[in-house]
Amino acid sequence: MSVAQMTRPTMNVTVQSNIDDGPAESAADRHRYDAHALRDLTSRIVQGYGLSAHDGDVVADVLSFADTHGIDSHGLQRFQLYDAQMGNKIDPAAQSEIVVDTPVSTVIDGHRRMGQLNGRQAMDMTIAKAKKTGMAIAAVRHSCHYGAAGYYANLAAEQGLIGFSVTNTEPAVYPLYANDVWLGTNPIACAIPTRPHAFFFDASTSVVAYGKVELYSKQRKDLPAAWVVDPNNQPIHDSTDALGRLMRYDNEAGLLATGGNSEYTGGHKGYGFSVLVEFFSGIVSQGATTDRTAVGDPVEGISHGFMAIDPRIFGDADTILRNFSEYLDQIRALHAVPGKRIYVHGDKEAEAYEDRMTNGVPLYHKTVAELRGICDRLGISYAGVLDH
Amino acid sequence: MSVAQMTRPTMNVTVQSNIDDGPAESAADRHRYDAHALRDLTSRIVQGYGLSAHDGDVVADVLSFADTHGIDSHGLQRFQLYDAQMGNKIDPAAQSEIVVDTPVSTVIDGHRRMGQLNGRQAMDMTIAKAKKTGMAIAAVRHSCHYGAAGYYANLAAEQGLIGFSVTNTEPAVYPLYANDVWLGTNPIACAIPTRPHAFFFDASTSVVAYGKVELYSKQRKDLPAAWVVDPNNQPIHDSTDALGRLMRYDNEAGLLATGGNSEYTGGHKGYGFSVLVEFFSGIVSQGATTDRTAVGDPVEGISHGFMAIDPRIFGDADTILRNFSEYLDQIRALHAVPGKRIYVHGDKEAEAYEDRMTNGVPLYHKTVAELRGICDRLGISYAGVLDH
């Protein structure tokens, strides 16, 4: 939660987000901004909606984690969404409620607090329980967008535990061979403490996350593969057209699940993982599955899941984690396809973190303009932070 | 373990295996054989290697589960592999050893017993612990091929619990952008008790399992998509060529991870899930990761992982599981792409089970010939079972 934490030498990181870092990093597209200053500004903006300084810092920590680790789709470019939801989908005055509390499990009703606050509470409780019992699990209902799933998994890894987090989202994905938008992008994140940085897996169960389509639209680039299809399973390549159709929620487009639009390429696998995410978020919490997250007034909200496992329940944790670190080093050293580098999950984010803590966080002009507009409306100064 | 269990009306089921059931079911290719008779014969064959009647029944139950549920790649067509490994990779006289035993966790050294025996022991212990503590986990090292991962997950679902199982395998898969065969096909299975049959997800983290390439080769069909690539990431379409290269282990071919051969199609996701399977099997058990399973004399053997969760730790289990059943029914009823049906994971296997318990299990001529040869060598009668 502190700046000290953000500057620790051991870094943790998502491959999901970084697949287009090349073009996205071009200096012409983005200016760089100081990570600490952005984090402070984010907390002040959150407090501008009436939340406490503590809560502002929690939300800022989650967003800063994403921005500093190259998970651009889940950093400050998301803030426009939170601003639009504040006071309707998000209740800035809400308090959460613990509805199940056993030695190994927690269920929280988030009462539509900001998702970051519910997520942090649930994962902190899960980590504490796993340290006592060996493993623990949690689910949250009636929540809101909680940022990068990997943030919560990483909280466990920072304390020597194996962490998992999943969340459902708003409807965006066609189940295989359906053309009703029904499933969320439903990420699965896992972090495991290793050297030199955590193994960090954070992947939507769709081919890409919603935010990736947004990023391509902001960059005015065509989608490079079959990420979004029309109701006949035909790919849509124009990113702005695809995004527009997705945002109208009129079933004229859907993201594909990981594996694509046929069983022959494994589309049933992403679809199956996505349903598992629905189970461990919306079903076990007795909240809303993705298809019902936007139903009602106030809306039902989304649901999250969390798990932590203490590696000591398998034996000597140091040996286990050292063996895993060595195993990952062996993968990094394999022969590569000509012209390619072999990454382990977390490597790209660790490199992004090193770069961005030194050189600043790159933000798109559009994102900066959105943040300035929010600050102006709330009467918050961004002087010294978003000047250029 | 009993025939009664096999004929119960509630069935549990893998989408993974059934994607080519259409052509594979053609009467010209396969005769049908009585499921109970095959199961009995399988147990007698296993006993022919010197194993006990109990152990023979366990192995037969696992293989029969696959064959009766349409998971053809992991049924009796696997037996040739077991026969070839018996006495070298598989030690028919071995006993397993429990090396970690806590209220929530188990680690077993399988001492190269047949994988089904180690898997069944580990999952039975995990189910018993989860019933007491709410959730439990296990890992097995120094084991052998254990059949369909979903069998073990399903044992939990039959008792009202959520079950998981994973296993590593022999090397078959290139990590994304590597051209050393390093990872296994590494399936992830999960079963959840629902009506009218369990939600049953059992998917290799490669585009397809190894056995699927074998099936296509037996059928002399080309691979229908980019399942296997050469060291330059180029797809190999001839199934017999692909299988031959995979079986030579000379790095001249590798299966792709789910998501394919690029980050743009999600190849890093299947690769990441595959590494997680290595962690929860070979790493936490302090056994062998896939790359080392065939090292040594005797070989290190493969590793498995298991987990069970009691849904009562989230609240009223009946409500939770009823809600999930209704949710899955809603998916089945969505609008479909023209000409397609929407399946929920487990539907195809439930239908296969109903058909095969009534009409018999279809086996390829090649599989029947293999089984007859084994019986002849061991002096076991297959009269009345494999007559045609």
UniProtKB/TrEMBL annotation, chains A, B:
Residues 1-28 are annotated as: Disordered. It holds the Pfam family Ldh_2. It comes from the Bacteria. Keywords: Oxidoreductase. InterPro entries: Mal/L-sulf/L-lact_DH-like_ah, Mal/L-sulf/L-lact_DH-like_NADP, Mal/L-sulfo/L-lacto_DH-like_sf, Malate/L-lactate_DH-like. Residues 1-19 have a biased composition (Polar residues). Belongs to the LDH2/MDH2 oxidoreductase family. This is Malate dehydrogenase. The lineage of its organism: Bacteria, Bacillati, Actinomycetota, Actinomycetes, Bifidobacteriales.
